[in-house]
Specification:
about 15% helix
Length: about 775
Amino acid sequence: MSRARTAAHAGMVFTAALLVGAVLAALDDTARGAETAGAPADLPDGAPPAARAAEPPLPGADGWPFSDTHFPRTSGTGRLHGGASYWTDFLYDDHGPASLAGISRPRVGFIPPQGVYTYPDGPAHGNGADVFRTAVGVDDAASYWRVDWTTLADPDVPIAAWTFDRDADAATGVAQWPAGAAVTSPGIDTGLVVSSRGAWLVDLAGGGWVDVVASGGRLSVDRAAQSFVVRVPRDLLPVAGRWTVRMAAGLADAQGRGFAAPHTSPGVPSAPGTTRVYNVTFRGVRQEPPVFTDGMTDALVALFQELAATTPPFDRWGADGAGRVVTGNFWMDDHQADKLFAGDVSAFSRTVDWSRLRARAGTREPRPRGYSNRWYVTDLALGHGVTGDDSPAGDLRPNFLGRIQPYALYVPHDVPAGEPMPLTWVLHSLGLNHNQYGGLNPALLRRLCERRNSVCATTLGRGPDGWYFDEAEADYWHVWRELAEVFVLPPRQTVISGYSMGGYAAYKLGLQHPDLYAAAVSLAGPPACGSGARSADGAPTYAHERCNEDGATGALVGNARWLPYRIGHGTLDQLVPFVAVEEHVQRFDQQGLRYRFVRYPAEDHAAFAGQDRFDAVIEGLRRPRAPRNPGRVDFSWYPNLDRPAMGLRATGAYWVKGVRARDRAPGALAEIRARSFGRPDREHTVARTGPTPVVDPLVAAVSTLRWRLGERPGPRPLLTLDLRNVARTAVDMRRAGLECGKVRVDSDGPATVRLDNLPGGAQTVSVGAGATRMRVPCP
């Protein structure tokens, strides 16, 4: 392990302390594309339009004569197709090397990258040298060398350098890369330097440069595709045999022929002679694991644990938690940062077998088991690159703006390909990102994913502080669609979970769409944005209008009639007052709704997050199943949360659909209480237990409310609807178990009720304030 990593991670104690302080200070202070008939069948019925619109295609790259659609979706993987070799890099991993001066400041949120390079203000948009994808192809006349950028607002910003070991022998050739990249890899003999200003072949032994374009080749710079493609005639660069190929990127100098001096985080100087590379591709998915260790990591972790054992609040993290502060690979750049500091990038390469490319060999899309990062394309046009927050407390606005967005995925090892696997969401905390649980909570992922044979996913949410509103919520639904395209997901077995802000999402998203989930797990989650300490309604104390207007989930708790919650919280929590959560649990209890509440008397917020000891909350979760057609539906929603341009809207629940409110002002609430006596629910009595002390492995007290089920009454041909602030709604009568009978509607104002799936066709009735009675005749 490099000295840089040792020094950098030894400083993690101080950075983590600043992180906790920053969190405390921060909290104190036109519809989306048309729904398509081709939407995945595994998407549940009640998913909003954002989950059902087709993913937009990326533009084809100018000058690339091969397929544009065969790049792998998993970062750190490659495949072959139709004469080309395709590779996908990690996203937002463009941080350069580690440094003896310590780790860098986070670009956004509280999780810093391992590398310390940043960008100058201006056209780089905070992301200008980030490689998204690369590809190599060959035809009878030429070879083709392609790089796609995550951000290409200004094509003059990045530069890419390829190196070739054409005899695949590290003992021949030279080591030093061209264009002032200041990295090495033994055995290379030829370089290809590419910027918007030109492409040059470099004889690395002799030092000669050949202008590819002036010699009959071509450079295509495509701003729409965000790509550079170089066509090199085969008489200029003969291609045969098996080559070892590498590629790295940075900022271009004024002439476009060399790497410019990097920018570094404030207070972290760039030592003379250090690399000018921001990003090295061809790092395999297993080379950047979520927990990164190497030969000296054990000793470093032991030292960190010893220091943390006497440093509050880290003394409560436990040995595993303290070690993960060192080893968490939150931006998938730890291995890259170490190697760039050392200056030797020979570990990162791809073999190009020209005979296989000429034979147009093909390989399957890689779908690795275990942990990985994937990407998808969004149709939300938000801008370019990475931007900071307007407020140190966060602003609920997107930070990662581009059309390509990453997410984390865990695929269990023991389920055969193509077999059904339930989906479990594990949504990230305030200030963190999609790799939070891979880096900090591998035991939680083992329990939720591996042991339950469940696919698990964590979204980036466009940034660390979106609170799963607007663009951050749209990101969630877009990822759900992508997962349903790839896996067989039983639509009635989805579980939603998360820690802190992710725990809030388990309330917000779970209660907004209760029919989509079989269970919800909130770990240290506030009932509203921020702390949610106001006892009357669970309203937030967070100083943001979206949270203050529509962020309190207390008014939505009744939606959980068929959605059991598991809630875990530390009584010493500094950020989310325990009393607010306890009052929230009381809302469940008073309405007789099922829950499992685990109190941790010795746990706070930050230390609890890193201990990875949530066993008492998760115990017995297994693989629950949501009802499809219950007899009673209670559904409340905040109409102001609808964002038609993003495909976000309330969709109702179960057999109550097509909901719209009259008053859609901020803070307004709409409510439907529906009951079908044609599909009666089993009677039940409430059974409470606890608080029961447990040590599993943390000291805790468990309280539960369960249902003891009794007999099911006989059916009657009756439907009742109680409407508050409802402009219109629809009832799927077939799913409600009714084909005729009485309908009783009580409303506080004018509303339209449509009765769908009747034997004689749909019927629509307009009602006014008060009671309306009607009869649907039997066929």
